[in-house]
Design brief:
By secondary structure, the chain is mainly β. It folds into two domains: about 35-140, Immunoglobulin-like, CATH 2.60.40; about 145-235, Immunoglobulin-like. About 5% of the residues lie in helices and about 50% in strands. The chain has one helix and 20 strands. It has one helix at about 15-25; strands spanning about 5, 10-15, 35-40, 60-65, 70-75, 85-95, 95-105, 110, 110-115, 115-125, 130-140, 145-150, 150-155, 165-170, 180, 185-190, 195, 205-210, 215-220, 230-235. The strands form six sheets. It has a four-stranded mixed β-sheet, with no helix packed on it. Strand 19 (about 215-220) and strand 20 form a beta hairpin.
Amino acid sequence: MVSRLRTKAGFMPLAVLSLTLALSGCGAPMAPIGGDMNVALTWPALTSVSRVVPTTATVVLVTVVPFSGSTQSVYLYRPSSGGYTTATSFTGLNPGACTITVTAYAFGTPGNLGTPLATIVDSSHSVTSGGTITINLTMASTVNSVVLAPNATQVTQSAGAYHTQTLTALPEDASGNVVLTSSAWTWSSGASGTVSVAATTTNQTTVTGVATGTNVTITATEGDSGKSGTAKVDCVAALSAPTTGSVNVSVSR
């Protein structure tokens, strides 16, 4: 005999009621737990003469593009007193690779910004579920070294998913903070007939496979300091996924 439960509409078999209750909690799968990003920025002293970049900067726009989901942006303003560091946090970023762009301006308000004085793009970080990334940026010191991320990767000779790869050059000071720079970048390939590099003046570029070969040196040079960094790129016939080298980027602590 099937047990029944009386409702206003009549009797409902308990077996059907149990199935209904079980299914009521089976909606869309839960979204993955997001990760966080903390960003700290050190401003140059107004009396500083050690850098071309830029004592006149008063506002910095920080934009984070996560692997999926909405882009987040925050404006950081030069402190009027009490130190030279400002900080912000981005929460609930979807897990996966992300890109952070930081641009300094002499003046401006949201929607009414002047000419950019300095900028940096950083795509070397990946958000993990429940994890926190910390990025330290500075305009108060000079470039001591340049690190490329990734420092080793692969591209394919023929058009396809891995025919091109993006490289990011990160200018760092002696303490490992990423320096916002106003100068143009120069990129070159040690064997453009094997792996070509896009002619760009920013700190990011695209490399493309031309012919099979290994250990092609890609060089990025920051114009203000003259400091350079390198990466190695192989061009292969086919890839299921590229092999990338791990980079110990000191801005992520």
